[in-house]
Specification:
Length: 65
Amino acid sequence: MATKKVKQYIAGKCDVCKHEHMTTDGGWIINAERKLFCHDNCFDLYLRTKKIERLTKRREHADSR
């Protein structure tokens, strides 16, 4: 009996490392901004950079007063 081939398509790329996500891959993260992340490390890195940006903006705002 012949096995059925599963078609794979590129569904997107990770916003951090640019790894291609295939339609058959699981475990990737999509945040509220509709950004794609391939695994926890990339998502954690994204969160850390966003937190640093937010803290920097707060600090700059406090310094300007």
